[in-house]
Amino acid sequence: MSTTAFLLVALSSLFAVIDPLGVIPFFSGLTQHMDRRRKRNTLIKSLVTAFAVLAVFTFLGPQLLAVFGITVDAFRIAGGVIFFGIGLDMLQSRPRRWRTGINRAMAEDTIMHQGDEEEDDPAIAPLGIPMIAGPGSITTVMVLTPQAPSHQGGLLVMAAVAAILVLTGGILMGTDALLARLGHTGLRIIEKLMGLLLTVIAVQLVIDGATPVIRAVIS
To answer: Which residue has the higher pLDDT, 3 or 66?
Structure first.
C-alpha cells in the first residue's frame, strides 16, 4: 500500500469511527447554555484531550499489546468485530453500544445541560473521552499503525488524526448552521453512509487478520 492510499484509508476510517456529525446533537446539548467563547474553549480542550489519548495509543499501542501477549493479527480481527458492530448500529440507526449515538444524544439533550453550568466541564468527559477518543478511534489508530507502508506509521496516523480532529472542530463549531441545513434526516443519511463504509473496512480488517492465522494453520 502506498503512503497516499494508506492516508486515505486512515482518514476515511477515523472520520467514520469518530463520526463528528453524530457528535453534533450531543455537543449541542452539552454546550447550548454557553456563550460562543466558552463553547470554543470547551471544544478546543476536548480536541486536545482526544489528540493526546490517541497519540498515546498510537505510539505505545504495540508495547501494550506485547505486555498482554496479543498479536497484531488478533487485534485486527478484534478491531474488525468492533467496527462491524459500530457500522451495523449506524446502518440501523440504533443507539451505539460503544458510545452515545444520534438518537440517544438527542434524547438526553435536555438532561445534559441542566443544573449549574459550572458544575461539570464536559470538555474532558464525555466530549474528549469517549465521544471523540472512544473505543472505536483508539482501536483504529492501534490497528492502522502497524499497517503503514513505512517505519513512520505513527507519524502518518497522527497526521490523519490531526486532520480529522481539525475537521471535527470545524463541524462542531458550525453546529447550528449545519443542523439548520441538513436537519435530522440529512444527519441520518450521512450516518448510514458512514456505517456502510465502516462495515466494509471491518470485513477487510478481519480478512487481513485471519489470513496469516489460516496460512500458519495450513502450513
So the answer is: 3
